[in-house]
Amino acid sequence: MKLGVELAVGARIGERSADRGGHALRLADYEAVIIAGVPAVPQPDGSMTQYTACRFTSDPASLQEAAARGSLCAQVFLDARGTVR
Known about the structure:
The protein is α+β, with helices and mostly antiparallel strands. Helices cover about 20% and strands about 30% of the residues. A two-stranded antiparallel ribbon has the order 1-2. Strand 1 (about 5-20) and strand 2 form a beta hairpin. The longest helix is centred in the last third of the chain and has 10 residues, at about 70-80.
């Protein structure tokens, strides 16, 4: 778990794919509600990439930079909201 919380998964937001050189990446975003725990990063699990920081915002523009750098999850979210990247 990258955030250390338990989620209730909701509706699918969208999906994107990207060529990452030697492999293809396919990512789907879903709405979710935290049902247990408090988000904390990084988690003590070395088996996956880890977040170094997290924050909550109601401003989708805060994802613009990440989307421009290639973050598929940010791109999916902004596309679903009709937000220009």
